[in-house]
Design goal:
about 190 residues, alpha+beta, TATA-Binding Protein, 6 strands, about 25% strand
Length: about 190
């Protein structure tokens, strides 16, 4: 059963690689109360040293220890919500370190703002019948830079894929193998 779940997870991830997804998400249900599931992660935090586990309310964050991390190391964020007294919904999100993600989003935002700014400047120069070649050149450069950022993110995701499988396996083992009906989220 363990290999079946891991194979299913790999199939889901591989299907996501054909889409524009930098932070894969999934959702499944377990047949236990959310407080019991959260307690399992609290207990795992104290009984192992392979992962850093932290909890805030119904959110569990699982990370690779600092000494084993690299720039692209992912973390797993779980939100464990109660469905009823005997079952819970778990939403998972794989993503980079929040600092890396913030930096990437800042660079994307900066590229977009520069593209729009130089586009407005180029349009103004065009409407005034002035030269606008430099502005168009910088807009093309911003487009190329956006693609470079995008592919760097994809490459980083692939570099961290083995760690994603480790994080997922730890989550599955902590929940005592109750990972069923694993679905990607839109």
């Amino acid at each position: 059963m363990e290999n079946c779940i891991l194979t299913h997870f790999k199939e889901i991830y591989m299907s996501l690689t054909n889409e524009i997804v930098l932070r894969p998400r999934f959702k499944f249900e377990v047949k236990r109360n959310n407080q019991v599931a959260l307690k399992l992660f609290e207990d795992a935090k104290n009984t192992q040293s392979d992962f850093i586990v932290s909890r805030v309310d119904n959110h569990v964050f699982i990370k690779i220890p600092k000494e084993k991390q690299h720039f692209w190391s992912p973390q797993l964020h779980l939100e464990i919500s109660e469905i009823d007294n005997t079952s819970s919904s778990i939403r998972g999100l794989f993503g980079p370190n929040p600092t890396v993600w913030t930096m990437f989003m800042f660079f994307h935002f900066l590229v977009a703002v520069l593209f729009i700014g130089f586009g407005a400047w180029a349009y103004s120069n065009w409407s005034l019948e002035n030269s606008y070649g430099i502005q168009i050149g910088i807009m093309v450069l911003m487009t190329v830079l956006w693609f470079v950022l995008y592919f760097a993110g994809r490459l980083g995701g692939k570099k961290g894929m083995d760690e994603m499988f480790l994080l997922h396996g730890f989550m599955r083992d902590t929940l005592k193998g109750e990972v069923g009906n694993l679905k990607t989220e839109d």
